[in-house]
Amino acid sequence: MIANKDAMDWLRRLPDDGADCVCTDPPYGIEFKAFGSTGASDTRPRFAPIANDDKPFIWWLREAWRATMPGGCLLCFAGWQTSDTFREAIRWAGWKLRSMLVWDKERPGLGDFRQDFAPQHEIIWFAVKSAHCRAAGFRFQRDPASGKLDRPRSVLRCKTPPLSMRTHPTEKPVELLRTLIRATTPTGGLVIDPFSGTGSTGEAALREGRRFAGCELSAEYAATARQRLKAATRGAHGAHAGHGALKSR
Questions:
Q1: What is the DSSP string of the chain?
Q2: Residue-wise pLDDT tens for the chain (249 aa)?
Q3: This prediction's pTM
C-alpha cells in the first residue's frame, strides 16, 4: 500500500483514470522546520528537514489528474504563504477548483513571536476532474453529534496533533482526513497520496472503508506508514470505528 519511491516516478506508473480521490499534503515550499517541544526558546529541530521544500512542489498535479477518474477529486493541503501558487498550478494541471477549505487547528503554532499573528489555520484546495464530484455522499453527511444530515462546510475544526506525539513534522489529524474522505469519496473507492509521510491519509481511508495506495520518499517514514496501515486494516475488519467529534461550521 505504501511504496518507498519518488512521487513523480510513482505517479507516472499509475494507470489512467484509476483513483477516486487524491488526498495529499505536498511540500509547501516554505522550508518548514519543526523545533523541539519545549517552547519557542528550543531551537533544536525535532525532525529532519522536509525534502523538496525550498519552493512549492507542484509538478505532480498533472500526473495526479491523469490518474484520477472523471468525477474524482483532489484535496490538496497548502500553507497561506504559497496557497496562490498551488491554486494556479491546480488549474493549470486540468482540475476544476470547487472550494477553498480552512482547517482551524484550534491551537496556534509558533510563527514569529515578534511580528506575526499566531498561525492557527491551513488551507485545503478542493477540486474535481470533471464538473461534479461523483461521491454519492458528498452533498450531505450525518453529523456525529446531532445525528442530522448536513452539507459539508468549508471551515473544519480539529486539533492538530501535539508536536511531542507526531511521527512526522507536518502530520495531519486522522479525524480531519476521515471527514474529508467521507465527504468526497464513495465507499470502496480508491484514495491515493503521493506524499504519504507516516500514513495518516491511508489510515483515514481504511477506517472509512475506502481503498488506499500511496508513496513516500523517506524509507523511515514509509516503514512507519506500513506498520500504521497494517494496524488500520485490522481495525477496519472489526466494528466500523466512530466518526469522532470533528466540528465544522
A1: -EE-S-HHHHHHTSPTT-EEEEEE----SS----B-TT-TT--SBSSPPPTT-SS---TTHHHHHHTEEEEEEEEEEE-TTTHHHHHHHHHHTT-EEEEEEEEE-SS-----TTT-PPP-EEEEEEEESSSS---TTSS-EE-TTT--EE---SEEE-PPPPGGG-SSTTPPPHHHHHHHHHHHS-TTPEEEESS-TTTHHHHHHHHTT-EEEEE-S-HHHHHHHHHHHHHHHHHHHSSPPP-TT-EE-
A2: 899 999 999 999 999 999 999 999 998 765 555 555 444 444 555 666 666 666 788 999 999 999 999 999 999 999 888 999 999 999 999 999 999 999 999 887 766 667 778 889 999 999 999 877 776 556 566 776 777 777 788 999 999 877 777 776 678 999 999 999 999 999 999 999 999 999 999 999 999 999 999 999 999 989 999 999 998 888 766 544 444 434 443
A3: 0.83
Amino acid identity, position 60: W
